[in-house]
Amino acid sequence: MSAFDGLPKALRTLCVQDGRPLQDIAIASHISPAMLSSYLTGRETPTIKTLEKVLDGLRLRLEDLASVLNDVQGNERPQPVRPTGEDLILGFPREEVERVFVDQLTRLGFVPKKKAGEATGSKPKSRKSGKA
């Protein structure tokens, strides 16, 4: 199961909870009503950037969408994350979140750049200490 399974239903739920007409939500999101409708029915899948626009138009955060997605997918509500030494984003390990976003970007035709210090297949050059 993908983290975004049930996205259309989750977006519909958020729009209904908002209470405004879909046309008003689309205008506030800076997208056309037809595109919003296609996202809500699952005919189209929004890009991350467009999803951010829709959430901005709904005056919501990504955490709100994640919560509704959990409900739609039938997942148990995640327990609050206790502080650990682990690097987390929205309660999920950073590596997992980055993998999902890289997969999405790759499907959209973007080639993600390598992070500084990430293995590129060549060994880093060693620096001389400067001492004679």
Could you please describe the fold and organization of this structure?
Helix content is 49%, strand content 3%. The protein is mostly helical and 132 residues long. The protein has a two-stranded antiparallel sheet with strand order 1-2. Strand 1 and strand 2 form a beta hairpin. The model has no long low-confidence stretch (mean pLDDT 77).
Q: What keyword list fits this structure?
A:
49% helix, two-stranded antiparallel sheet, mainly alpha, 434 Repressor (Amino-terminal Domain), 6 helices, 132 residues
Low-confidence stretches: none
* Averaged pLDDT: 77
| Arrangement of strands in the largest sheet | 1-2
Structural category is mainly alpha
Distance between the termini: 60 Å
From the coordinates shown, what is the CATH architecture of the domain at 7-77? Answer: Orthogonal Bundle
CATH class of the domain at 7-77: Mainly Alpha
**In the CATH scheme, what's the topology name of the domain at 7-77?**
434 Repressor (Amino-terminal Domain)
In short:
With 132 residues, this protein is mostly helical. It has helices at residues 7-18, 22-29, 33-41, 48-57, 62-73, 94-107; strands at 88-89, 92-93.
Write the layout of secondary structure elements.
Blueprint: H1 7-18, H2 22-29, H3 33-41, H4 48-57, H5 62-73, E1 88-89, E2 92-93, H6 94-107
Helix pairs in contact: 1-5, 2-3, 2-4
